[in-house]
Design goal:
The complex is a heterodimer of chains A (222) and B (99). By secondary structure, chain A is of the alpha/beta class. Helix content of chain A is 23%, strand content 24%. Chain A has one domain: Class I glutamine amidotransferase (GATase) domain (Rossmann fold, 3-Layer(aba) Sandwich). In chain A, helix 1 crosses helix 5. Chain B has one domain: Mth169, Chain: A, CATH 3.30.1280.10. Classes of the chains: A alpha/beta (222), B alpha+beta (99).
């Protein structure tokens, strides 16, 4: 699988994501700088990593969502290329309009950084086929702006269409309906606050994130 | 020292037609959107003994120094495309000329 990881000034999980992708796919991803306007030919998967792009200026993800590479990311997403946005990447995807809603300051105002139990709500997506629906997995979070909010009608639609991919088992940041990760209407764009790339080998203290990348590899290569 | 009577960079222009065009954009959270920051400020004010505050909402103000002829529509586009996230925020533009 030919993957690309987008790197913004202030990204800090780009290397972790690259390591996880190489571990699972056997192939180093292309690291694509935000000023580039094109993705490498034949890119089959795009990862938007965590971090603090542009120092979270204006709003988390706001500047990154308008950088030159995002035009190419939007085109690829429209063609059906799978895109995952993790943490700051999720914020970038909502700011870019690829996912609905917004990620606001955590309700308790504090930065949360700990492993959290999540329920897999949808095991039929490109990204979650290796999980069981209703399964509990543990993935770490590390964010200040992870409080997912959207209009009630949008939340109802996400629920009704099976587009809530992951939900926090316990209140984590004030997110509406405890939403931790959502899919776009086509199912090829996933945004989530927890960091699956941080739990891909036993030395990390868990491997619950690994199946996300394995599932992706299986669907893309098949 | 600039030569006498010569135009110097950074000096105010004496041309009466030149105008300083400024706009201020006020960005606020929509009604109903929880504002944890405003809440924290409210608590802190109460902690200082200010008991007469019913509610606090925090927002931001962005000042734009504009080229002559920048239209209101353009400023509104700036707000919609970048300055405000209209999913959660409202914006209000205040223009001031010769500010």
């Amino acid at each position: 699988m030919k993957s690309a990881v987008i790197v913004f000034p202030g990204s800090n999980c780009d290397r972790d994501l690259a390591v996880a992708l190489e571990l699972v796919t056997g192939r180093k991803p292309a690291m694509v700088w935000h000023r580039d306007s094109e993705l490498p030919d034949g890119t089959e998967f795009i990862g938007i990593p965590g971090g603090f792009s542009y120092g979270d200026y204006l709003r988390s993800g706001a500047m990154a969502a308008r950088s030159p590479i995002m035009g190419a990311v939007k085109d690829a997403a429209a063609r059906g290329v799978p895109v995952i946005g993790i943490c700051n990447g999720f914020q970038v995807l909502t700011e870019a309009g690829l996912l609905p809603g917004a990620l606001m300051r955590n309700a308790a105002l504090s930065f949360v950084c700990r492993p959290v139990p999540l329920r897999v709500e949808n095991s039929q997506s490109l990204f979650t086929s290796q999980y069981e629906a209703g399964e509990t997995i543990t993935i770490p979070v590390a964010h200040h702006d992870g409080n997912y909010q959207a209009e009630e009608a949008t939340l109802d639609q996400l629920e009704g269409e099976g587009r809530v991919a992951f939900r926090y088992l316990d209140q984590c940041n004030g997110s509406a309906r405890n939403i931790a990760g959502i899919l776009n209407d086509e199912g090829n764009v996933l945004g989530l606050m927890p960091h699956p790339e941080r739990v891909v080998e036993p030395a990390h203290g868990g491997i619950d994130g690994r199946r996300l990348f394995e599932g992706l590899l299986e669907t893309v290569v098949a | 020292m600039p030569p006498e009577g010569g135009a110097a960079i950074g000096q105010p222009q004496s041309d009466d037609k030149a105008q300083l065009m400024k706009a201020r954009v006020f960005i606020t959270l929509k009604n109903g959107v929880l504002d944890p920051q405003g809440k924290a400020i409210h608590h802190a004010l109460e902690g200082l003994g200010f008991s007469g505050v019913n509610d606090v909402r925090a927002g931001k103000m962005i000042e734009l120094d504009l080229a002559e002829g920048t239209s209101d529509d353009e400023i509104e586009d700036m707000c919609r495309q970048l300055l405000a996230n209209t999913v959660i925020e409202n914006f209000r533009i205040e223009r001031s000329e010769n500010a």
